[in-house]
Amino acid sequence: MALVVARVLLIGAGTAAGYGLASSMDLRPLAGAAAGAGAAAVAVALEIAAGSAPLRPMLCAAGGAVAGLLAGLALGTALAPLAADATGAVRGAVALLGAWVGGVAAARRASELWRPVASAPEERARVVDTSVLVDGRIADIAEAGFLDGAVIVPQFVVRELQQLTDAGDALRRNRGRRGFDVLDRLRRSPAVRLDLVDIDFPDIADVDAKLVALARARGARLLTNDIGLGRVAAVAGVSVGNLNELAGALKPVALPGESMQVQVLREGKEPGQGVAYLADGTMVVVEGAKRFLGQPLEVVVTSVLQTSAGRMIFARPRGDDPEVRDA
Predict the structure, then answer these.
(1) Who's near 117: CB < 8 A, 6+ residues apart?
(2) Packing angle between helix 155-165 and helix 170-188, nearest 10 degrees?
(3) Which of 1, 103, 128, 312 is the most exposed, fewest CB within 10 Å of its CB?
(4) Which H helix or E strand runs over 302?
(5) Which ranges of the chain would DSSP assign to H, the alpha helix?
(6) 47 vs 7: CA distance, rounded Å
(7) pLDDT tens track for 115-174
(8) Cα atoms in the Cβ-side hemisphere of radius 13 Å centred on 6
(9) For the whole prediction, is pTM greater than 0.70?
């Protein structure tokens, strides 16, 4: 509303100025007032158009108009001696034409002056818990170049590793030592910036809850192998990464009809079945392979079953004809 009032006042002021200056320009008062009002109206129209125009083309047009005006003045001055008595008109006309051409050309080519600069991808930190450190695979992932940026390890996680190292059980001690070995590998990795933060949340007693609070405070992703912690973090709005899920996603896909070499290790649940395992731990159930226990065997995949516990592959020995065997 204030802007509308200001525009009306501007037109009124232009009308009054035109009325007052009419006598000095040999115009009738009404003609001067009309000319002043018209000039003010043109100024308001230009202001409205400039307000709705994109800033980048407008700046380019202004710069191009100034450059064109200067070039037009120079060209008009050079051509003025050829125009005899119309030297002023020639200079003015050429200057206006130069301003017009420069402004329009610059506005049309504005997108070429400001090309978007590719910004560096935003680095997102990861908060890791004890289960990821004692697992050990995160160091292999970092050394392979699939993990970079900041890896945040809070001191209360380091204290958990220390408690494992000091435990009476040999298995727990070994897990704690492996966690410290993984920390050292991450520290020496050129792709990872290990950040040991001495931060605590005194009002939170549970370590899992502290990890969620830290990830939320840092805007970081939480890496954990603990399914329960992952669910709690997801409910709290924290992005979660699970190395077990990553390992499952990276398992090779077996399609029906493909061949593979396996080692039959034990009998299956059904009569005649043999069970083998791939290098990634995937179970392969081979029909009629009981007679090949302890032997390498080339098999043909018949089907693949995806379960919550992982992937199971069903196969038969290569060369076995299912129809003949069933008969």
Answers:
(1) none
(2) 140
(3) 1
(4) strand 296-307
(5) 2-21, 29-52, 55-79, 87-108, 110-113, 130-135, 137-143, 155-165, 170-188, 207-218, 227-235, 243-249, 322-326
(6) 10
(7) 555 444 456 789 999 999 999 899 989 888 888 888 999 999 999 999 999 988 888 899
(8) 7
(9) no
Which domains occur in the chain, in start order?
A: 2-113 (no CATH), 126-248 (3.40.50.1010), 255-326 (2.40.50.140)
Minimal CA–CA distance to 94: which of 83, 109, 105, 108?
Answer: 83
Buried b or exposed e, range 41-59, using 16+ CB within 10 angstroms: eeebeeeeeeeeeeeebbb
Q: DSSP class of residue 119?
A: P
Q: Looking at this protein, which amino acid is placed at residue 41?
A: A
Contact 240, 258 (CB under 8 A): no
Residue with tokens 């695979």: 137
Side chain identity at 322, as an amino acid letter?
P
